[in-house]
Amino acid sequence: MTKNRQVLLARRPEGQPVAENFELAESEIPTPGDGEMLLRTVYLSLDPYMRGRMNAEKSYAEPVPLGGVMEGGTLSVVEKSNGGKFAEGDILVGRCGWQDYAISDGTALAKVDPSAAPISTALGVLGMPGMTAYSGLLRLGKPKEGETLVVAAASGAVGANVGQIAKIKGCRAVGVAGGPEKCAYVVDELGFDACIDHRADDFEAQLAAACPDGIDIYFENVAGRVLEAVIPLFNFWARMPVCGLIAQYSMTDLPTGTNKLPALMRAVLTYRLHIEGFIVRDFADMQADFRRDMGQWVRDGQVKYKEHRVAGLENAPATLMGLLKGDNFGKVLIEVSDDPTG
Ligand SMILES: NC(=O)c1ccc[n+]([C@@H]2O[C@H](COP(=O)([O-])OP(=O)(O)OC[C@H]3O[C@@H](n4cnc5c(N)ncnc54)[C@H](OP(=O)(O)O)[C@@H]3O)[C@@H](O)[C@H]2O)c1
After folding, report:
1. Is the whole model's pTM more than 0.90, yes or no?
2. Residue 80 and residue 38 in contact, taking contact as beta carbons nearer than 8 Å
């Protein structure tokens, strides 16, 4: 490559993002100064939170400025090091954004050991989404043997791990996913006890039938119709770690129909629900345990993972648009340039 391509936020979206919200720009490859490194992006992770960064509103993180490079987790290789923290050839996980190259002094980057696992897992099962599932489920979900857990987006980066870890902890794991192919994968490959298609006309009845002893943990990934179906099934002292609300991220109007908030509040009081939101970085103290346990479970084959790979940085906008609508099947990665480990 002779140029640095960058995907910029051109306009803020209203509703679902469209191609016009993004701009592909080209510039010279930057030169690292003293103590800096030139990093070449190998994989770019696409994640639902990116939709929130495209809005101007106050949130738990700053929005991407108009004309700014879209934010994102990356796996990069050090192409040139001018006395930087890492050596040429090192593979680093960090947040270099939607671009071919970045300059860094090494801040907020960590070295990835290519002999431990395929390097792409540092953005998935052994990275942020895996840590989200592990910490949110264990710290807030507090799974106990024999309990029933429900998680939606169950074939995706976070949900797949939530259900598999719940199984390791002796729970009944019920997934929710979009379509028969994803549901079959969740049960047959990931080992969940059941998986219900949220697009089915009788989704609510099917979910109730799959949870004959009620729900003790609802790991909230989506909100919307799934949350509404869960409310009548809560057991006393149930826990609801609130991880994500993807069904709401591109909403412009309140949904029509009955307001379910009174039903939710009644369930909170009657069943003494414990509802708590979290952002993965809140549980940084669990990193070492996560690395030890998840590393072991992946090596043992107790936790399986699936990647949804798309080649070419230029395809990142369309792939993010698809992710927000359920087009992905597994952890979404953009292959930006050659993987040095093959
Ligand atoms: N709190 C944190 O720190 C943190 C960290 C990472 C992720 N998250 C959140 O965790 C959730 C899952 O993220 P992920 O990275 O694992 O994504 P993912 O599951 O790999 O992909 C998103 C999936 O969401 C599902 N979905 C989209 N719209 C939906 C709707 N209206 N109703 C039901 N399902 C819908 C689709 O799956 P189906 O086709 O199966 O419906 C889609 O494939 C997101 O809400 C994300 O924001 C939070």
Report:
1. yes
2. yes
